[in-house]
């Protein structure tokens, strides 16, 4: 074992503060919706159904994470010749992203094929226990799983390794704050479905800003 100098540790912490705060800011659009619902929706049963649905979607996101991890070293190796975000880097990452979306999308399709017959054959029991509403919310939020895969590969991996971690942090924090606003508005208008919509909308808007970082840097 070789002791690590305290100065080296401090330097690395200082250099990676944007990555740390960017990861922490994810809370604002992935976990804060339930808090907003508590303030805008008065039905505790509806909030509980949303909470279970959100946890189910997060389980799907966790199941997709090994796919991301499998392609992570390949992405870092592919970006070795790039020192900034560019359209060329985006093309390389897009090639690695496509099989991930196909694998995760296939898993989501399998889940749909299991849940839809369940709703068809047991409608009365499911409605009596609120399960049908939870499944509908899961369907509504499930596109966030695919969007999250793209944001991880292009954002967390790509931009953090292409000297754009400050941009990514500012983008995540900005989208998180916007999510609090539109989640409050949507839930006040349409109830817990508004929370589900804002959950997906945040991932989609984040992806737009992540892609913007590559497109604005030219074709290098």
Overview of this structure, please?
Helix content is about 85%, strand content about 0%. It has helices at about 5-15, 15-25, 25-30, 35-40, 45-80, 85-120, 125-130, 130-140, 145-160, 165-190, 190-215. It is globular. The longest helix is centred in the first third of the chain and has 35 residues, at about 45-80. The chain has 11 helices and no strands. The termini are far apart. By secondary structure, the chain is mainly alpha-helical. The model has no long low-confidence stretch (mean pLDDT about 85).
Quick rundown:
It contains 11 helices and no strands. It is mainly alpha-helical and 220 residues long.
The low-confidence runs, each spanning 5 or more residues with pLDDT under 50, are none
Structural class: mainly alpha
Cα end-to-end separation:
42 Å
Strand content: under 5%
Largest sheet: none
Please bin the fraction of helical residues.
over 70%
Radius of gyration, CA atoms, in whole angstroms: 20 Å
Let me know the average pLDDT: 87
Name a few traits of the molecule.
globular; 0% strand; mainly alpha
Could you give the topology of this structure?
Elements: H1 6-15, H2 17-25, H3 27-30, H4 33-40, H5 44-78, H6 87-121, H7 123-128, H8 131-141, H9 143-158, H10 165-190, H11 192-215
Helix pairs in contact: 2-10, 4-10, 4-11, 5-6, 5-8, 5-9, 5-11, 6-9, 8-11, 9-11, 10-11
């Amino acid at each position: 074992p070789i002791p690590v100098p305290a100065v080296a540790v401090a330097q690395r912490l200082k250099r990676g503060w944007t990555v740390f705060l960017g990861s922490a800011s994810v809370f604002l659009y992935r976990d804060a919706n339930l808090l907003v619902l508590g303030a805008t929706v008065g039905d505790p049963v509806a909030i509980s159904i949303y909470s279970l649905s959100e946890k189910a979607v997060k389980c799907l996101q966790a199941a997709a994470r090994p796919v991301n991890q499998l392609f992570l070293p390949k992405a870092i190796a592919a970006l070795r010749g790039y020192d900034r975000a560019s359209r060329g880097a985006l093309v390389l990452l897009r090639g690695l992203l496509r099989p991930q979306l196909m694998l995760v999308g296939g898993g989501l399709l399998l889940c749909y094929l299991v849940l839809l017959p369940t709703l068809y054959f047991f409608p009365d029991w499911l409605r009596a226990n609120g399960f049908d509403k939870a499944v509908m919310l899961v369907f509504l939020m499930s596109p966030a799983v695919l969007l999250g895969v793209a944001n991880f590969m292009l954002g967390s991996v790509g931009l953090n390794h292409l000297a754009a971690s400050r941009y990514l942090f500012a983008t995540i924090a900005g989208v998180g704050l916007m999510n609090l606003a539109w989640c409050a508005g949507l839930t006040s208008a349409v109830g817990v479905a508004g929370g589900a919509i804002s959950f997906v909308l945040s991932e989609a808007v984040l992806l737009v800003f992540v892609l913007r970082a590559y497109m604005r840097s030219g074709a290098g």
